[in-house]
Amino acid sequence: MDQAPPDEVAAAWAAAMRRGDFEEAWRHTDRIELPRRALQRDGRLEREPHHLRWDGSALEDRSVLVRCEHGLGDTLQFIRFIPRLVAMAREVHLMVQPQLLELLQGAPGLGHVLNGWTDQPAPPHDVELEVMELAYALRARITDLPPPYPGLRRRAAGRPAFDLPGNGELRVGLLWAASDWDASRSIPLALLRPLLRGSHARFFSLQQGRAGSDALMSELGIDPLSRHTTDIAAAVAAMLALDLIISVDAMAAHLAGTLGRPTWLLLKHEADWRWMEGRSDSPWYPGMRLFRQPEPGDWQALIETVTQALRHCR
């Protein structure tokens, strides 16, 4: 096993993922993980309490604990692998963020779904992984990715339906601000003015947090849904009533993609590895269309492209 610096290996992994060469990416992961696992099994390495947990042990016919310790969007993206794991393991415990508990607890194909953010001890288990490790553990390839987890739509069936106003207009859900940890994914609301005033659509805000109370929303004619979609189950019901979701790279985009809703994703120039490069579609979400900054920081050109696309959308 070579001794290349971890940062160098991580960069090679990300480049392979952006190309869609998952097999090469897993080989780079092995370069770091196999030596670590040997130390871990001998008790000479203690894992950080998040993100990487798997020691390489077999999953077949074992009791497997899957923790969700990244973002909500990461959980939604990678739970697609849980039914495959359930089919091979003896039992599966899925410990999710509390915001997702209502939607996922009791959902088919996910095993025992528990609140992962409590002080209660984890249930007994043989093997432990973080949910984003499943693609690696199962050696997923871009050609055989499972579809997005199909159970969210069924879980939302019992929620009251959203009756959204509209006179034959396209009803578009809008989210322009990502989480604070990466502000470069967010778009200042004022830059969306050409999109909001240059199409036949009616826009509804799905934005949460401080951006969801931006005073400019009223001037731009955005209907606020934010106060009605503070929990994820309500956001699901709203998205099912909308014709199109336009979102920056945030949890809402993963939620819409998992629901199979038509989704336009607005990406910064150096987008995250999961959106690959040079593509306007995503193998992770078949109903998603990607719009990318042509140059770093150039949201204006991207918005012009989206505005033109929306004018031709019926």
Describe the protein's architecture and organization.
The protein has 314 residues and is an alpha/beta fold. It is built from twelve helices and ten strands. The chain has helices at residues 6-19, 22-41, 72-78, 82-88, 98-104, 134-137, 151-155, 193-197, 216-220, 232-241, 251-259, 299-311; strands at 63-67, 91-96, 112-115, 127-130, 171-175, 202-205, 223-224, 244-248, 263-267, 288-292. The strands form two sheets. A six-stranded parallel sheet has the order 7-6-5-8-9-10, sandwiched between helices. The chain has a four-stranded parallel sheet with strand order 3-2-1-4. The chain is globular. The relative contact order is 0.12. The model has no long low-confidence stretch (mean pLDDT 91).
Quick overview:
By secondary structure, this protein is α/β, with parallel strands linked by helices.
Main features:
10 strands
Q: So what's the overall shape?
A: globular
Mean of all residue-level pLDDT scores: 91
* Uncertain segments: none
Strand order of the largest sheet: 7-6-5-8-9-10
Rg computed from alpha carbons, rounded to a whole number of angstroms:
21 Å
SSE pattern:
HHEHHEHEEHHEHEHEHEHEEH
Largest sheet: 6 strands, parallel
Structural class call reads: alpha/beta
Residue share in helix = 25-40%
User: How many helical stretches?
Assistant: 12
Number of strands: 10
N- and C-termini, Cα separation: 55 Å
Strand content: 5-15%
Architecture blueprint of SSEs:
Blueprint: H1 6-19, H2 22-41, E1 63-67, H3 72-78, H4 82-88, E2 91-96, H5 98-104, E3 112-115, E4 127-130, H6 134-137, H7 151-155, E5 171-175, H8 193-197, E6 202-205, H9 216-220, E7 223-224, H10 232-241, E8 244-248, H11 251-259, E9 263-267, E10 288-292, H12 299-311
Parallel strand pairs: 1-2, 1-4, 2-3, 5-6, 5-8, 6-7, 8-9, 9-10
